[in-house]
Amino acid sequence: MPKAGRTYGPRIPAPNYAQIGKDAERQALKELGLDRPEDAVHARPEDLIVKAGDILAQADAEVALHIDERDQALAHLWFYEQRLGLAKTVGLGNMGYRQALATMMFGSKEHVHDLPTGSGEELAQAAEAAGIERVENAEQKLLKSAQVVHAARARRDIALRFMQEAVFALSQAPYNWTPEKIAEHAGVDRKLIYKRRAAARRRHGL
Prior knowledge:
The chain is mostly helical. It has helices at 17-31, 45-79, 86-90, 94-106, 120-129, 138-171, 179-186, 190-203.
């Protein structure tokens, strides 16, 4: 909600994150060797899980590379320029974008309710005291990095979905692979395989 005592900058039009997500999902399916999600039933699980692991690694690397720039630009626009509608601009829900701001200011998203309020000058002073740097061309940097992060996370979600089913198939006959063997084959941490196997078992009522 707009607050008295603040002069707001213009809203930044939000990218079409729904379309970005759809395009990223199609890309992930292509990388998995699938034309449609239902084609996974004909894929070899030992091949599918390797491809899913590769997508996870790539997506995680993209997020790691761009999320700091996204959040730094977001913090600049919120604290120093007081732009409205930043949650939509960055492709997050209201709580998600406030958690990103809290992480920038306090080092933890748990402090979301401690974000300062007040006039624009007071917000800027609080940001400076917290060591939040000003960002040149923040609007352009936010739009670019937010889209990369959103697309990477969409690809990651698809990869996890198919990894889950591949883990379940490899855990059953005729494979009967252990989580450790699956993790080694896929090139991922075994904790991830345990989580995916547990989720798959729940989905199958086991």
